[in-house]
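User: Sequence recovery, please. Input:
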């Protein structure tokens, strides 16, 4: 320790051999037993990447969002897809400004994203931080005791908040079966395991002799090839320009292109508010809080997309997150089959996609384009209906003295192998107008 019980300065300096360094030795200081030295290292400070504009939505001030949301105005006219995309860019910038004014940004280890975080926890953490700074500055016994007390209070406050949150979760789960199963799944998959590192382990390259790689670019290429393959298909029966030479607004049947604000509100009400947002970091709960002005603006965006028969580029983008599958060993985690992708889309884009999806399903049901026995993705049909139908078929067979056999097929990589040209051609042959297929 140096003078007045303060930390002493560092006596030695280590530098990388590739760095260009200069050693300066000034004249000896009178009355000192040390020879002061100064080392100059010529290098540039690396620039830190800009942090993404991610917000802690738990801290959102809903009143501020509603007040500032009143300034949102609809497009007011879009003669081309370029005009519409320029408006969406302005709208996104305005919404991000509203988010900045109403919601705290996420920071490293801020704790805001934890379910148990509240204002009491925030104040306790701030007091601990201030006490730590006082102790580092003075090194006195009094400030050391103050720091120890602040740490105890912070620990007690966090424990109390965690207990309260857990009780609320279990109380809600007792009234909602879905939440109960969510708790069961979280406890089964993650409750007994330490938190996994946020980085990928070395991945094995494709091929029988493939080695391991930890290089980021190579891992991206390997995972992209796995998640987004280019399937080979015979498309000789499909004209190359079939989707461009046809009248986009003609088909075997018409689909209603009129959209009103209630359509947007109905979709927003169904979307879970605080699920992971897309590349723009704007959550569905924030969009709901913006109120009617944003719903009116999105209504016009949808209508212009329908009229133009084109989809804005901002809603075609997605952030791909790679998640490890549960129960994999360290050795298995080097294989591509141990991971699955999820695509995080813009919540505004998902709202518009849902409106289009609803229109397509209405036309599908109205014109009987699906087999009568299909259960998946159909309104009014659930897993329970499917089980009841199978049980009834088995009992009917038994009543005639027949043997009932159930065959189940699980097609591996079905979605990965979809050929989009073939899919568009099938939709056109079914009768959908080309504007909605595009």
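Assistant: Recovered sequence (438 residues):
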């Amino acid at each position: 320790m140096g003078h007045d019980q303060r930390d002493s300065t560092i006596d030695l300096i280590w530098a990388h051999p590739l760095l260009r360094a200069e050693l300066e030795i000034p004249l000896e200081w009178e009355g000192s037993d040390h020879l002061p030295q100064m080392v100059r290292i010529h290098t540039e400070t690396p620039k830190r990447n800009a942090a993404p504009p991610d917000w802690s939505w738990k801290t959102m001030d809903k009143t501020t969002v509603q007040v500032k949301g009143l300034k949102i105005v609809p497009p007011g006219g879009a003669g081309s897809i370029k005009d519409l995309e320029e408006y969406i860019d302005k709208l996104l910038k305005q919404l991000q400004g509203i988010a900045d004014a109403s919601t705290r940004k996420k920071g490293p280890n801020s704790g805001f994203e934890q379910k148990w975080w509240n204002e009491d926890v925030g104040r306790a953490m701030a007091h601990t931080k201030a006490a730590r700074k006082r102790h580092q500055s003075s090194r006195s016994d009094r400030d050391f005791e103050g720091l120890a007390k602040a740490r105890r209070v912070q620990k007690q406050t966090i424990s109390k908040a965690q207990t309260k949150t857990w009780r609320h979760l279990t109380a809600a789960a007792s009234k909602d079966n879905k939440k109960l199963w969510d708790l069961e799944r979280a406890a089964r998959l993650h409750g007994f395991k330490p938190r996994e590192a946020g980085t990928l382990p070395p991945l094995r390259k494709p091929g029988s002799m493939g080695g391991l790689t930890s290089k980021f670019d190579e891992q991206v290429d390997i995972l992209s090839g796995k998640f987004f393959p280019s399937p080979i298909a015979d498309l000789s029966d499909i004209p190359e320009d079939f989707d461009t030479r046809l009248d986009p607004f003609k088909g075997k049947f018409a689909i209603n292109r009129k959209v009103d604000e209630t359509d947007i509100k109905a979709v927003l009400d169904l979307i879970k508010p605080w699920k992971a947002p897309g590349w723009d970091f704007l959550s569905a709960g924030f969009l709901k809080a913006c109120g009617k002005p944003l719903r009116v603006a999105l209504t016009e965006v949808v209508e212009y997309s329908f009229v133009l028969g084109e989809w804005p580029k901002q809603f075609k983008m997605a952030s791909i997150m790679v998640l490890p599958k549960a129960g994999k060993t360290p050795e298995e985690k080097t294989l591509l089959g141990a991971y699955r992708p999820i695509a995080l889309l813009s919540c505004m884009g998902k709202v518009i996609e849902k409106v289009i999806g609803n229109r397509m399903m209405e036309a599908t049901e109205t014109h009987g384009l699906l087999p009568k026995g299909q259960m998946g993705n159909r309104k009014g049909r659930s897993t329970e209906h499917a089980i009841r139908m199978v049980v009834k078929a088995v009992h009917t067979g038994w009543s005639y003295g027949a043997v009932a056999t159930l065959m189940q097929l699980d097609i591996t990589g079905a979605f990965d192998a979809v050929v989009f040209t073939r899919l568009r051609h099938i939709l056109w042959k079914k009768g959908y107008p080309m504007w909605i297929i595009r």
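The longest helix spans residues 141-173.
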